[in-house]
Specification:
Elements (H helix, E strand, L loop, with lengths): L21 H25 L5 E5 L3 E8 L13 H23 L5 H24 L2 E9 L3 E2 L5 H27 L2
Antiparallel strand pairs: 1-2, 2-3, 3-4
Catalytic activity: Release of signal peptides from bacterial membrane prolipoproteins. Hydrolyzes -Xaa-Yaa-Zaa-|-(S,diacylglyceryl)Cys-, in which Xaa is hydrophobic (preferably Leu), and Yaa (Ala or Ser) and Zaa (Gly or Ala) have small, neutral side chains
Protein name: Lipoprotein signal peptidase
Enzyme class: hydrolase
Length: 182
């Protein structure tokens, strides 16, 4: 005779990405390739740092700039150690993302996409730091000569959009996903 207890809850483990994380690695690779090709193209075209070509006046130019620091040139004038620090940080973050993409639930598609975009962007900027000692930037948003957003690149776009998706997942999707697995 089997005895049933009425208050027993059945918890199911979510199915993890595992080998299907490969698709997200491909997305990261696409970001990386687009980033590196665009940087090489703009560096070969504009050649000299701070060369600027108006695209849509008064607010969008192609401007070649070298970022020797982190976001917004943070720590750019620190003598060179920051190149290695930010390269190692980028490698560590990338390694964690490669590992973590296999461990998250298959249902966390927004999170996985966000992490894939961050992965491609992080590796793109690490490659620049290791090859050149700086990150190549070329997208310049401004308003006449009154306001200038720091010059950025495709890797930065991937990182920014990726982080927005990760935050969106954390704020709006993670709780719902966790409730369905209980």
């Amino acid at each position: 005779m089997t005895q049933n207890t009425p208050n027993t809850q059945h918890t199911s483990k979510p199915k993890l990405n595992g080998k299907s994380a490969f698709i997200y690695y491909i997305i990261g690779l696409i970001v990386l390739i687009f980033d590196q090709v665009s940087k090489i193209g703009f560096q070969n075209w504009l050649k000299v740092e701070y060369t600027s070509v108006p695209v849509i006046e008064p607010f969008f130019n192609w401007t070649l700039a070298y970022n020797r620091g982190a976001a917004f040139s943070f720590l750019a004038n620190q003598g060179g150690w920051q190149k290695y620090f930010f390269a190692l940080l980028g490698i560590a973050v990338s390694a964690f993302i490669v590992y973590y993409l296999r461990k998250i639930p298959k249902s966390a598609k927004v999170l996985a996409l966000g992490l894939a975009l961050v992965l491609g962007g992080a590796i793109g900027n690490v490659i620049d730091r290791l090859l050149y000692g700086y990150v190549i930037d070329f997208i310049h948003i401004h308003w006449y000569d009154v306001w200038h957003y720091p010059v950025f690149n495709v890797a930065d776009i991937g990182i920014s959009i990726g982080m927005v998706l990760v935050l969106f997942d954390m704020l709006f999707l993670e709780k719902r996903r966790n409730q369905t697995t209980i």
